[in-house]
């Protein structure tokens, strides 16, 4: 399991726009770089990130090798009701990780 | 170097290997750059936007004009939009000019996002122009470009 950092406000007022920051530790090997033996290292990147609120997709990103190692993203969503945000990263070599965060809407 | 070998031969071998190494060093960046550019930026943009016209405006691209380390460049893209059901941003894509691959990131948004703004960190292999293109819910495309001077390129060379 890769280490993740997720920043979501614990509470929000209904209708507020909340800022979400996510980071996952991942080398994002581009597939264009030669290794020590001169051979190109195979690509190993995260290709897709999805954020869902109670199962409904609210934000999705397609990532390419030009994204830095340890992909970081900031985005926003509107708080409507209390619930669970889930964050899923998918990538090469079957990479698949999901983390969750709860948000309390008053 | 062993004492048993004739002196001239080892000198020859050394010279030969030296020339080879110098050639390899001289050829490597050229080969890397030529072999790894997978698609032109224009093609990638057309694949994203189709044949639709792309107008400048509404998009703001914020990245440092002088980049010290091309391995992690913080970039913010925001689009002027009310972000309601009738008028919102559907997709935002970033394109580069000189990395091995033209795509950087594509994000999918909806009216729920509240604001059409994202921040991420990207790799830049060379001094180049970055283009952001946003698709709004009415099917129109908007763009903005920014130049970045890169002093330390993202490592293509290992």
Automatic annotation (TrEMBL), chain A:
InterPro entries, per database record = Ig-like_fold (IPR013783), Ig_E-set (IPR014756), SoxZ (IPR030995), SoxZ_dom (IPR014880)
Q: A Pfam family for this UniProt protein?
A: SoxZ
| Domain Sulphur oxidation protein SoxZ as annotated: residue spans | 9-101
Q: So which domain of life are we looking at? A: Bacteria
Name by which UniProt lists this protein: Sulphur oxidation protein SoxZ domain-containing protein
Origin species: Methylobacterium iners
From TrEMBL, chain B:
Q: Which PROSITE patterns match?
A: TAT (PS51318)
What the entry lists under InterPro entries is as follows: SoxY (IPR032711), SoxY_para_1 (IPR030997), SoxY_sf (IPR038162), Sulphur_oxidation_SoxY (IPR016568), TAT_signal (IPR006311)
Domain of life, per UniProt, equals: Bacteria
Pfam assignment, any one? SoxY
Question: Where in this chain does the record put each Ig-like SoxY domain?
Answer: 48-155
Q: What is this protein called?
A: Ig-like SoxY domain-containing protein
* Annotated organism of origin: Methylobacterium iners
């Amino acid at each position: 399991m890769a280490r993740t950092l997720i920043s979501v406000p614990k509470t929000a007022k209904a209708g507020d726009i909340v800022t979400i920051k996510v980071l996952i530790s991942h080398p994002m090997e581009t597939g264009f770089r030669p290794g020590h033996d001169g051979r190109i290292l195979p690509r190993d990147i995260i290709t897709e990130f999805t954020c869902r609120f109670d199962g409904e997709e609210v934000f999705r990103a397609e990532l390419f090798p030009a994204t830095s190692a340890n992909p970081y993203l900031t985005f926003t969503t509107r708080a409507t009701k209390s619930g669970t945000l889930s964050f899923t990263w998918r990538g090469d070599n079957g990479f698949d990780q999901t983390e969750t965060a709860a948000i309390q809407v008053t | 170097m062993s004492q048993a070998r004739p002196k001239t031969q080892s000198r020859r071998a050394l010279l030969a290997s030296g020339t080879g190494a110098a050639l390899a060093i001289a050829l490597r960046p050229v080969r890397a750059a030529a072999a790894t550019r997978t698609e032109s930026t224009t093609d990638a943009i057309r694949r994203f936007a189709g044949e639709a016209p792309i107008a400048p405006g509404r998009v703001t691209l914020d990245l440092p004009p002088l980049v010290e380390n091309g391995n992690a460049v913080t970039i913010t893209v925001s689009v002027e939009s009310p972000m309601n059901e009738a008028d919102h941003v559907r997709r935002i894509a970033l394109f580069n000019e000189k990395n091995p691959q033209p795509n950087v990131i594509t994000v999918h948004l909806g009216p729920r996002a509240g604001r059409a703004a994202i921040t991420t960190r990207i790799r830049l292999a060379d001094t180049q122009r970055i283009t952001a293109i946003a698709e709004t819910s009415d099917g129109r495309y908007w763009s903005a470009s920014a130049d970045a001077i890169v002093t330390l390129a993202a490592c293509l060379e290992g």
